[in-house]
Amino acid sequence: MKHVRLHQNAKLQVNNKYTLDEYGSHHLTKVLRFPQGQNITIFNGDGMDYLATVLQIKKHCEVEIYDCVKNNSESDLNITLAQGIAKGEKMDFLMQKAVELGVNKIVPIMSERCVVKLKGDKLKKRHHHWCKIVVGACEQSGRSIVPVVENPVTFNEFIDRGVNNGFVLHHRAQKSLLEMDKTTETTVLIGPEGGLTDNEINLAMDSGYKALLLGARVLRTETASLAAIANMQLLWGS
């Protein structure tokens, strides 16, 4: 049986018993039909894996933690992905894969060419949905630190924050990552389906972002995000 990892938003301690939240209980009992007496791993975002035994499987599941170990899956490279909001499943997909590749923070950006317009309750629901996507990706990929998903901000709001070691993807840029200095912390700024406008790229560069070329081909936004993260991890992280 595949080993199960579940996120629980609670303070966890060895030798304590816990009732899993509604999602965790449903996943074990209804989806996996998990047997009583078997072991699972729980994490809460503190960087530790908590090893637990399932004591009972009913409407709610009770577990007891018997050990905890340091999770060493995090990269030495701290990456913030500032992503122009893409439509529907594209955004879900790139967030999921970005977490698997080790990104530490995701900032959804409302740029000029964004087709998706979010505000009010719709924005809250989408942000909650994205947070669930990120937690699920951590469960699947073996991470025990949950990346931050910020509330969406406008392009100008994000640029006004300033940046250290920032890169903006631009298909007319001259330099690739191989020509950039190694760093332990970086921000990569990527536009939505229609890309960033020339004005947005210029604003980013005026704010300290370096124009980055990923290759000779023009990539879709979800491809560009993952290619940039994967290459940065290969060169500077893990």
Properties at a glance:
2 domains, five-stranded mixed β-sheet, alpha/beta, Ribosomal Protein L25, Chain P, 238 residues, 12 strands, seven-stranded parallel β-sheet, elongated, 6 helices, Alpha/beta knot, single chain
Structure description:
- It is a single chain.
- With 238 residues, the chain is α/β, with parallel strands linked by helices.
- It is built from six helices and twelve strands.
- The two termini are 28 Å apart.
Number of strands: 12
Kindly state the percentage of residues in helix: 25-40%
Mean pLDDT score: 93
CATH topology of the largest domain: Alpha/beta knot
Q: Structural class of the secondary structure composition?
A: alpha/beta
Order of helices and strands: EEHEEEEHEHEEHEEHEH
> Would you state the CATH class of the largest domain?
Alpha Beta
Task: Summarize this entry quickly.
By secondary structure, the chain is of the alpha/beta class.
